[in-house]
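User: Could you check the structure of this?
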Amino acid sequence: MANHPGNQPPPEGPEPAEPGPSGPEPAGPPRDAGADGRADDRRGNADDGRGGADDGDGEAAELAELRGRLAVLEQRKRGARFRLLSLLSAVLVVLAALLAPVSVVATWAHSQITDTDRYVATVGPLALDPAVRGAVTDQVTAQIVAALPIDSLLSLVPGADQPLIRQLLGAAGGALNNAVTSVVRDQVAAVVDSDAFAGLWVEINRTAHDSLNRALTGQGGGAVQIKGNTVTLDLAPVIDQVKNRLAARGLGVASQIPVIHTDYVLVESDAIPKVRSLLRLLQVVGNWVPVAAVLLAVGGVLAAARRRRAAVTVALAMAGATAALGIGLTVFRSIYLDQLPADVNQAAAGAVYDALAHYLYTSVRVVVVLGVLVALGAWVSGSGRWARAVRILWRAGIDAVRRAAERLGMRLGPVGRFVHRAKLWLNWAAVLAAFGLLVTWHYPTDLVVVWLTVALLAVLAVVEFLDEPGGFRETAEQQEVDEAGGTA
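Assistant: Sure, the predicted structure tokens are below.
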């Protein structure tokens, strides 16, 4: 059967779209499969980005946590180091304070033993002390009367008359002895009260100082000797002077008196053996103890977190410990005199103690004054309210004087600008110069320390007066603010 065109099946192709409610969907451009893939990729990348952001937040949080832990460890480490340095600073400050009075005694002992002029200057004034003169007169008189050969006077009398003279001397008894003693005492007192005695006393002690070291080391010999619990001085030269005066006054028998070594007791105490060993040790260490004390003090300041406060503390601690030594010397004087035997001249013993301790008291005052001044300087240079007020008043006063001088026509010019640039170095140079003078001064006193401080303040005032910035001048308050900012 032939196929009729109307009966042929329709050609294959896309199925027609079903009509919608509004009719058939309008035809448009064909859809690109690549575009669909790129859209899918963009959606995937967006999802990956959100996942990466979540991972980044986690890493940041972990990093922050690690940093926090590290900060805690660092804080603990700094805290442990701070506590260790604070403990070290406290130990060094305490050791420096304990060594301060030891340094004073060591320096005194070293000077008395090794410096003859210093020793003579110590005991020289005793020749002018009435109590010491009286004690020397009594002791020399007793030794001469005991050694005076009165019986040899009978040799000048004819043999037939000697029995009668002996009878008369026996009848006179004590009256004759008193008469002889009175004559001898008058001549001894004439020697001791004369101006020549001071020179004789100095020569005796100058010669005796050569034997002082031997006495301390136990070798013995010499004019100064340590016997048991006493320190004695040989007065043989004084006795020789009295013998010559007695012979010159007509008592020729005095020339027959043999050489008499009379020991004048300078110090008597049961603690002499221990003090002897201590003085020998201090003689050996000498001036190294003060150096050690200063180094310990500097180390204590450098190890401290608040160095200015540490400087104030160590300076006052050393001054206080040394002041305690001075108080102890005064208390010990009373104890020492109370323990002396009853036959010892208390006034003379007190005079000897005062003479020996004179330069020791001087050294105590030097350390106390120096410690107070150092503490005051460290405090004034600090950032406290009152310290800043003191500096403001200092600068304001000098600034007022400078302005008055400028109104009178003074112009600093290049000098002022140079001082302004080098002000810090000039101030420190002045401080170091004052310290150098104090260290090299031959036995400084407390007055030397005070005058050096006054001179240092004068130099600092001149530097402040010459400080000319060359432009706008700041007030004292503004300078304090600038320095506080620079320090911070």
